[in-house]
Amino acid sequence: MRLSTCIVGFIATIALSAAAAGTSRRGVTPDDFYALASAADPHLSPDGKLVAFTVASIDRKLNRKVTQIWMAPADASRPPWPFTDEENASSPRWRPDGKSLAFVSARHDARTGAMQRPQVWLLSMSGGEARRLTDIKNGVTAFQWSPDGKRLACVAKTGGSEGGKEAIEFRDYTNPEYKFDGKGYFDDRRDHIFVVDAATGSARQLTSGEQRNDSNPQWSPDGKRIAYLSERTDKPLLRNGELDVISAEGEASVRLSAPESSLSGLRWSPDGRSLAYIGAADEVAIPKIWISPVNGGKCRVASEAVTYPNEVEWNRDGSALFFSGAFRGAHPIFRLNLANGIATPLVQDIAATSLEVDAENGKMVYSAADYRHPADVFVADLEGRNSRQATHLNDKLLAEVDVQPVERFEFRAADGLDIEGFFVKPVGWQPRKTYPMILMLHGGPNGMWGVNWNLESQAYAGRGWAVLMINMRGSSGYGEAFQRAVDKEWGGKAYGDLMTGVDAAIKKYPWVDGSRLGVTGQSFGGFMTDWIVGQTTRFKGAVTLSGISDFISVEGTRDAFYGHSRDFGGDLWENFDLYWKYSPIRNAPKVKTPTLVLHGDNDQRVPLGQGEEFFRALYHFGVPAELVIFPREPHSLRVEPKHAVAVLEWQIYWFERYVAGNVEARKPQPE
């Protein structure tokens, strides 16, 4: 990425260890997950004085995440406070006059106690009870105010068998895309856009179609048109995107020039002539920022140098874009000059998770985390200066625990490519002692380790283990060529990067005991864990989560069926030998490392059979192995809080037993 100023080096020495500071702080534990809260989706009031945002926390007794809306002054002059009651609420959106705030909430019926479908509710800033604005049959999943505050553009499902999918006794599909991870098997409903009168609640369906799902409605500045994104269910998963504009009165929609992959983050330019958004040129390319003219003409990339942006916002005159994006282990906030394509970093060494720009009031608001803190809300000027932290959600917990610094280190791969890693020392580290080390592998492969809060690595450090995280080739944040360097060899040079990185870490930190190494990873990291134990015996224990073990059997059963064509230069029939070559199951006879397999039984991205295959193969060849199946869990494996904690407890148990050598280590038990 071309930058106008050099990125300031990451400062990894701010937090002192408990031993050095002479405090009684303890190490992080899996149970600390229950006490954590995180902020997201911040929005400034029209006058720029207040921030509305969501706070997600855990209800341990009910075993679920709870999301509520909070308020904070933009100048951080007083502590934040909850704005909604105990009912779940999300998507806070200010009415343009600033006198009230709308949000999405699924509330219990006051008479029957039954949970209702999510609708849009309105709460006055002067107090009183929330008033329901919408009454759409299947509920509302997202919405946006019109510029005059008189209407809402809402996303809601249409159609569906009477009683919903629970009443369906069998499913008949002609389209092979009938399931998706985290959503399960599709019913016959589709997402479409409605326009709702804010005064009367009357709703008019704006878009339709049995083979499309519409999302992300955005009002034009003059309130006459709505731009939206559409996914075609009758097209391949990676080539199914459309960008459309429709009159707010419901006239025929117009499809604009746009790429067809990975569309998100749609925003109108201030003059209403263009739309900026995130997309990929094709199923192989990585996402960039695109601009499409509204009244005809070809779309264009805003800057070839900007890769993996998270979201996009315009400046006041339309000459620049603000965005956050993956860059060398962080998600900084940048300003992109559209005239010369130069991206200037404004806020650095953070993991920005959401961003809103208020050009009128000269402010930006964002939620961000770093290795010391889960996400909080910050407000700054449009140059990223005068930053004020509006929330301190986890101060009580963080005062009790010893959060270890995350150190960057660089090394060169066998072929000379520069690779970056991140390293965490164990809590209570002392010179002249040796410590085990856990190699953590990220997913993707286009994931990325870095400065973000990471409970898992901190919990390992709390057990007295060092942690190594490497952004091997294939990772995002280091340019397009680096990310696509795993084409046709998922277990090739990336594996070499990891082994070279382990050697480099042991050389730099000679107190790491090379005879006590563990390895773990999820998704692509799970695949790579499976691959590693089939290539080397240097690791004493391995934990693989949600990983592909057999590219032959997985291709026709996962939601993104035959989706690895871009990675292996063709589909299964074109390059069968390559798919088998990089299937970890092929090397099962060589595995000696005790391996724990963790998988969710509702994983549609990498179905449970992949974990079962690997576990059974290892058992067949006499390798110490266990399989733990988590009910109802999709690919993430951590939807239910108790499962999120148990997943980490199982990893710690396995490493305690096989890496630390504690034969008395006890398996986690259900609460």
Largest sheet: 8 strands, mixed
Strand content: 25-35%
Structural class: mainly beta
What is the approximate shape?
A: globular
The number of distinct β-strands equals 38
Poorly predicted spans: 1-22
The helix content, as a percent range, equals 10-25%
> How would you state the average pLDDT, rounded?
91
What does this molecule look like?
This protein has 671 residues and is mainly β. It is 13% helix and 34% strand. The protein has eleven helices and 38 strands. The strands form nine sheets. The chain has an eight-stranded mixed β-sheet with strand order 31-32-34-33-35-36-37-38, with helices on both faces. A four-stranded antiparallel β-sheet has the order 1-2-3-4, with no helix packed on it. A four-stranded antiparallel β-sheet has the order 5-6-7-8, with no helix packed on it. A hairpin with a 5-residue loop joins strand 13 and strand 14 (203-205). The protein is globular. The model is unreliable at 1-22 (pLDDT under 50).
In short:
This protein has 671 residues and is mainly β. It is built from eleven helices and 38 strands.
Summarize the topology:
Layout: H1 18-21, E1 38-44, E2 50-59, E3 64-73, E4 81-82, E5 90-94, E6 100-105, E7 119-124, E8 131-132, E9 142-145, E10 151-159, E11 179-180, E12 184-185, E13 189-197, E14 203-205, E15 212-219, E16 225-232, E17 241-247, E18 254-255, E19 261-268, E20 274-280, E21 288-293, E22 300-301, E23 309-314, E24 320-325, E25 333-337, E26 343-347, E27 351-358, E28 363-370, E29 373-381, E30 388-389, H2 395-398, E31 406-412, E32 418-424, E33 435-441, H3 455-462, E34 466-471, H4 480-483, H5 493-508, E35 512-522, H6 524-533, E36 541-545, H7 551-554, H8 565-568, H9 576-581, E37 595-600, H10 609-620, E38 625-630, H11 641-658
Parallel strand pairs: 33-34, 33-35, 35-36, 36-37, 37-38
Antiparallel strand pairs: 1-2, 2-3, 3-4, 5-6, 6-7, 7-8, 9-10, 10-13, 11-12, 13-14, 15-16, 16-17, 17-18, 19-20, 20-21, 21-22, 23-24, 24-25, 25-26, 27-28, 28-29, 29-30, 31-32, 32-34
